[in-house]
Every structure is written in structure tokens, then in C-alpha cells.
Amino acid sequence: MFAFLSEPGADGVGVAFTDREGGASEGAFAALNLGRAGEDDPAALSANMTALRARLALAPISVVHQVHGTTVKTITRADLPGPDDWLGASGPSRRPLAEADALVTALPGAPLAIRVADCVPVLLADARAGVIGAAHAGRRGLLAGVLAATVRRMRELGATSIHAWVGPHICGDCYEVPPEMQAESCAIIPELGATTSWGTPSLDLGAGVHAVLERDGVGVEHHDPCTRTTPQLFSHRRDRGVTGRQIGLIWRAERGDRSDSRG
Predict the structure, then answer these.
(1) Which of 117, 119, 127, 144 has its C-alpha lying 20 to 30 A from 67's C-alpha?
(2) Strands in 75-172 per DSSP E
(3) What percent of the chain has pLDDT over 70?
């Protein structure tokens, strides 16, 4: 169920990156798919999310309709979702998801998640200030500034000392791109430059994410096996576009609802 898990400890912040094991989905989406309802059986998706929430004892999880942009959605009490609202307009509530590529909140007990299958899930927290965030950093969003926008909004909510966790994504050895795309990307974030294991131009999204966050004064730790080469993870590129999604998930426990931290 988890590629990485750290449950809330003394600081109250929980962090998880899911894998594809332990769910109810079948075929190309087997098994713990947490992707879009238009692609997989909604009943299986609902069962997958129910199992995840039960394992972590979480309230309904906020997600957004990701569009590779820089919009940051702030979750207030008025935005808190119902159990199946994460399915969007295809779900039983027919409630469309907001278009954004990051979420932030200062609410305890309000989990945030980003869905990925090769892009970089980035989770952020200032535990002392009680502010958390989750960002979807694909190539386009990273170059456009989604991480800077997320950090800026967290600081507007009172964050001063932010720590980030970088989750599973396609690595620089595997993310082949045309030479022109590499040059254009590296002109914005030089640390993106890489070469595939077979000797062609590529982008190292993890290195780019790390560099951008570090320049913005954010501490970074990595829990990021390559999605393309890890069978236990979904990969859009490896599976030629027909695949599920894992999530990066962050939450802040209600006071008195904290356990020992473990990975």
C-alpha cells in the first residue's frame, strides 16, 4: 500500500506515498489505483480509497483536477470534501473538482493529496505553524513555477520553516526528451539536465525539484524510486498511457490523535 509512510509523531504531520499494491482495481489499473473515475471502475476506486483511509484513520481527502499549471487551492472548512468527492463529477456527488496543481491548508484533520504516475509528488509542511501543502510537479508545472507558488501561499498562511518530501517519479535515467526540450528546460532550471541510461538527452525532475525548493529556503528529503523501473508503482510512460495513479498524501493530526512516527 505504501512506497513510503511516516505516521504523525510529536509534530503531528503524517506523510505517505502510495504504491499499487493491495487494492481492488483490475487489469492495467491493478490494484490500488487512486486515479480518475473516467478510466477505472468507480466502485473499485471507492473501495481503494476507503481501504487507504481506514488504514490511516483519515477524514475524506482533498484532491484537485490537475492541469500542469501553477494554481494553488487553499482548503478551508467550506471546501472539506465528502468521502467520494475525490472522484469528481463522475462520482456519486457529481461535484466537479477545482482545477489546480497544488493544495495547502492550515486546518488539522484535513488530508491533502496529489495524484501521479511519473510526475513528481511534493509534500510540504511547517509543523510548528500548522501549515501543510501538496504539489504536482510535472515538467510543465515545475518550469512554470508551481513549487514557488505553493511555498509562497504556505508562507502567506504563516509558514516560516518549510520541509518537503519528494516522492516516486520517473528518474533522469529514464525520462528521455528531445534535445530542444532539454535545452529549453535547462535554460530555466539548469539542474534538470541529464542523460538516459541508453545515452540520449533526458530531464532529472527530482534534481530540478530539489534545486528549486532549496533556492526557496525549503529543506528537502527524497523517497523517490523511479516509477518506470519499479513494478510496484504506476508509470504513464512505461505503461504507454494506460495505467493507474498513486498519490502523495499529507495530513496534520488532530490534537490527541498522534502516533509514533515510522517509515
Answers:
(1) 127
(2) 102-105, 112-116, 120-126, 131-137, 163-166
(3) 97
Please state the length of the chain. 263
**CA dist., res. 158 & res. 74, Å (int):** 13
Q: Are 215 and 96 in contact (CB under 8 A)?
A: no
Q: Considering the entire predicted model, what is its pTM?
A: 0.96
What single-letter DSSP state applies at residue 101? S
**C-alpha triplet 16, 22, 25: angle, nearest 5°:** 110
The three cell numbers of residue 42 are 468507480
Non-local (6+) Cβ contacts of 48 within 8 A are 23, 24, 25, 31, 32, 33, 34
Report the CATH fold assignment for 2-252: CNF1/YfiH-like putative cysteine hydrolases (3.60.140)
* C-alpha–C-alpha distance, residues 206 and 122, integer Å: 10
Break the chain into its structural domains and give their ranges: 2-252
Band the pLDDT of 261: cuts 50, 70, 90: very low
